[in-house]
Amino acid sequence: MDTYERVTRNATEVVTETEGRELAEAPDGKRAYVGYEPSGVLHIGHMLTATKLIDLQEAGFEVTVLLADVHAYLNDKGSFEEIRETADRMKEQFLAYGLDEGRTEFVLGSEFQFDREYVLDLHALELETTLSRAERAMADIKSGDSVTVSQAVYPLMQALDIVYLDVDLAVGGMEQRKVHMLARDTLPQIGESSPTCLHTPLIADLDTGVGKMSTSEGVSISMEDSTAGIEKKITGAFCPPTRDPDPDDHGRERENPVLQIFEYHVFPRFETVVVERPEEYGGDLTYDDYESLAADLEAGDLHPADAKGALATYLDDLVAPGRAKLRERRS
To answer: Least buried of 31, 71, 196, 244, by fewest C-beta within 10 Å?
Structure first.
């Protein structure tokens, strides 16, 4: 796997591909970042972008994790004291999940977002951005049904963070795409460069395969889950014997979340996946890549129940170090 393949593995898109290739040609000293609101325990969405950060570290990038305490406050996620405590907890979990501590810089937004220069640049962006454009950028990430003034400022701060953190690559899930496109459009208007952006896919709802898995709706997986809890959630997951399920009764498109988690979470972290089965049912199956596992599921050589059992085991291995950190803090 060459550097560009590692950088873009399991990414939905790179904006632009030409810019991404230029970064991959000389990754040493280049910086990538993801911003996370400190609003809870690490869940499967955090883990997906964290896996991409691990890919980038292995490719030679330095990584910055923005623990966006000011953003969380603007998005009504609690007091600064509560948010700061959550940020400390999340940092420990990210390192437990596998980020290289020596190549990961953790930054709180409040460390630079109150500086005079930052505030003046933010006002300059406000002058260049309509309220409707800011509202559209927040559509996929806001809390609540309406956009507050604080939430309209939120995506402009995200754009400016890219400048002040001095990063070369902005990473986020597809829900961040509108914010990143706003950054690419508006930053040149205040004399800054458009950022290169990489977007990771969204995992489908675990129960139905419709829409995205959410911590506020339906079933999600987080570092708080016990081994038994993960097994229960995965056992009940939607997993037809195909990677392209038929639409549901309302005509909505569906994905296979079990296969998605194998593709985006398990195979990037484990060289080999073993599906344990009794000898009477053919014995263990060993897979070195996602495509082989998905092909066996579609061919009927791998039963969905056996795939779920293996997935629960490997997911638990990924979650266990962070779960232990949570227990340490609470003991």
So the answer is: 244
Residue in this structure with the two tokens 């930053």, named with its chain if needed:
187
Instruction: Specify the DSSP class assigned to residue 43.
Output: B
Q: What is the Cα–Cα distance from 263 to 283, expressed in whole angstroms?
A: 23
Q: Are 237 and 308 in contact (CB under 8 A)?
A: yes
Alpha carbon distances (Å) from 46 to 9, 82, 287: 17, 19, 26
Residue 2 tokens read as 């060459």
- The ranges assigned to domains in the chain are 3-200, 227-330
Report the C-alpha gap between 301 and 299 in whole angstroms: 6
C-alpha 215/C-alpha 222 separation (Å) is 9
d(CA 263, CA 259): 6
* Dihedral-angle region of residue 144 (phi above 0 means left; psi in -120 to 50 means alpha; beta otherwise): left
87-145 pLDDT, tens per residue?
999 999 999 999 999 999 999 999 999 999 999 999 999 999 999 999 999 887 766 66
The class (CATH top level) of 227-330 is mainly alpha
List the structure tokens of 226.
């016990």
Taking phi over 0 as left and psi of -120 to 50 as alpha, with beta for the rest, 194 belongs to: beta
For residue 33 the two structure tokens come to 């970042």
Residue 89: φ, ψ to 5°? -70, -40
CATH architecture for the domain at 3-200: 3-Layer(aba) Sandwich (3.40)
The rounded Cα 234 to chain-centroid distance in angstroms is 19
Question: What string of H, E and C letters represents the secondary structure of 236-283?
Answer: CCCCCCCCCCCCCCCCCCCCCHHHHHHHHHHCCCCCCEEECCCHHHCC
pTM of the predicted structure, to 2 decimals: 0.93
